[in-house]
Design goal:
The protein is an all-alpha fold and 176 residues long. Helices cover 80% and strands 0% of the residues. α3 runs parallel beside α5 (103-123).
Length: 176
C-alpha cells in the first residue's frame, strides 16, 4: 500500500504541474502523459523496453498517417492496409527482441499518437506537414515526462515493498 500511495502522489504532482505549465510545453491534455506513466508502471522486463516500444508505436502511427495523407487515397481499405502493416512491423520488433520491446506497449504508443492526431487530421487533412510533426513531438514529450515520472517512482520506492508492509503488519497483528 505504501508504494501505491507514493506512486499516486508522484503522478498527482506531475499531473498538477502539467495542468499549470503544460500549455507552454504544447501539452494541452494530460492523457498521453498518464498513458506513458501507466506503460512505465506496467509489468514487463524493463521500463526502457516498454518506453522504446511506446515510442516506436507512436512513430509507426506517424508514418501510417503520413502514408495515408500523402500516398494512398482516403478510403477505408487504404487505412486498413496501413494499420495492418504498422501492426505487423510492431509485432516483428517484439518477436525479434524476445518481447523486450513488447507488442502491447507499441500498440499503446500507436494508439496514443493516433488518438491525439486523428481529430486534427480529420479537420485539416492538408495540414499534415505543419501539424503532425508538432503532434508527434507533443506525444513524445508526454512520453518522456511519463517515463521520468516512472523512474522517479522507481527511485523513491526502491526500498518500499507493499508485500513487506503487509507481511510486517501481519506479523505485528495489525492486519486481521
Amino acid at each position: 500500500m505504501a508504494r501505491t500511495v507514493l506512486t499516486g502522489a508522484v503522478i498527482a504532482l506531475l499531473a498538477a504541474g502539467l495542468a499549470v505549465v503544460g500549455g507552454a510545453l504544447g501539452i494541452t491534455t494530460l492523457w498521453p502523459v498518464l498513458l506513458a506513466v501507466a506503460i512505465g508502471l506496467a509489468g514487463g522486463r524493463t521500463t526502457a523496453g516498454r518506453v522504446v516500444a511506446y515510442v516506436t508505436g507512436a512513430a509507426a502511427s506517424f508514418v501510417a498517417m503520413a502514408v495515408t495523407a500523402g500516398v494512398l487515397p482516403a478510403l477505408p481499405a487504404a487505412t486498413a492496409v496501413v494499420v495492418v502493416v504498422a501492426i505487423l512491423v510492431l509485432t516483428a520488433i517484439a518477436a525479434v527482441t524476445g518481447d523486450r520491446v513488447p507488442l502491447w506497449a507499441g500498440l499503446a504508443g500507436y494508439a496514443a499518437f493516433a488518438a491525439f492526431y486523428e481529430p486534427l487530421f480529420a479537420a485539416r487533412p492538408t495540414a499534415f506537414l505543419a501539424e503532425a510533426p508538432v503532434a508527434l513531438v507533443t506525444v513524445l514529450l508526454a512520453t518522456a515526462l511519463g517515463a521520468m515520472a516512472t523512474m522517479l517512482v522507481d527511485l523513491l520506492t526502491s526500498n518500499v515493498s507493499d508485500d513487506r508492509v503487509v507481511a510486517d503488519d501481519l506479523a505485528d497483528g495489525k492486519v486481521v
